[in-house]
TrEMBL record:
This is MFS general substrate transporter. Keywords: Membrane, Transmembrane, Transmembrane helix, Transport. It is a multi-pass membrane protein. GO terms for molecular function: transmembrane transporter activity. Its main location: membrane. It comes from Coccomyxa subellipsoidea (strain C-169). Pfam families: MFS_1. Residues 6-159 form the Major facilitator superfamily (MFS) profile domain. InterPro entries: MFS, MFS_dom, MFS_trans_sf. It is found in: Membrane. PANTHER family: PERMEASE-RELATED (PTHR43791), TRANSPORTER, PUTATIVE (AFU_ORTHOLOGUE AFUA_6G08340)-RELATED (PTHR43791:SF36). The chain crosses the membrane at residues 43-65, 72-90, 96-118, 130-151. GO terms for cellular component: membrane.
Length: 159
C-alpha cells in the first residue's frame, strides 16, 4: 500500500522537478527572441537556478527537520508551482533571473525531502535504496518526454 501511495507521488514529483529544470533548454529559442536575451544573459539565467539551489539546500533541509517532511514538501511544491506559473508573465531579463533563482531555491529541498520521508517508512538499506531507485527513474523519464512536450508546445504556439 505504501509503495503505491508514496512512491508514485514521489515518482511524479521527480518527473516534474526535472522537466522544470531542463525545459529552459527547449524554450531557449522562443525565450531568447521574446526577451531579446544574449547568449551570456541566457547562460547567467540558466546558472542562477543552481545558485538558488546551492544557497537554499542546507536551510531547506534544516526547515525539513523542523517542520516535518510532509509539511515542508507541500510548502516547497506550492512555492515551486507559483514560481513556475510566474514564468508565463516574463517581460524582462531581471525577472528571468529572479524567477530562475527562486525556482532553484524552491526545488533545493525536494529530492532530499523525499529521501528523508522515505527513510521514515523503509527501515532496511535494501528497501530504502530499492524504493528510491523507482523514484529516480523519474529523472530519466523526464528527459525522454521533455522534448516531445516542448515540440507539442511549439506547434501549439505556432497556431
Amino acid at each position: 500500500k505504501l509503495d503505491t501511495f508514496l512512491l508514485w507521488k514521489f515518482f511524479l514529483l521527480t518527473v516534474l522537478c526535472y522537466l522544470d529544470r531542463t525545459n529552459l533548454a527547449f524554450a531557449a529559442l522562443q525565450l531568447n527572441a521574446s526577451l531579446n536575451l544574449t547568449g551570456t544573459e541566457y547562460g547567467i539565467g540558466s546558472g542562477i537556478f543552481f545558485l538558488g539551489y546551492t544557497l537554499f539546500f542546507i536551510p531547506s533541509n534544516l526547515a525539513l527537520m523542523r517542520f516535518g517532511a510532509r509539511k515542508w514538501l507541500a510548502f516547497l511544491v506550492i512555492i515551486w508551482g507559483i514560481v513556475a506559473a510566474l514564468f508565463a508573465t516574463l517581460k524582462s531579463v531581471p525577472q528571468f533571473y529572479v524567477l530562475r533563482f527562486f525556482l532553484g531555491a524552491a526545488e533545493s529541498g525536494t529530492l532530499p525531502g523525499m529521501w528523508y520521508h522515505l527513510s521514515l517508512f523503509y527501515s532496511g538499506k535494501n528497501e530504502l535504496t530499492a524504493s528510491w531507485s523507482w523514484v529516480l527513474v523519474g529523472i530519466a523519464l523526464s528527459q525522454v518526454i521533455g522534448g516531445p512536450i516542448a515540440a507539442g508546445d511549439c506547434m501549439l504556439s505556432a497556431l
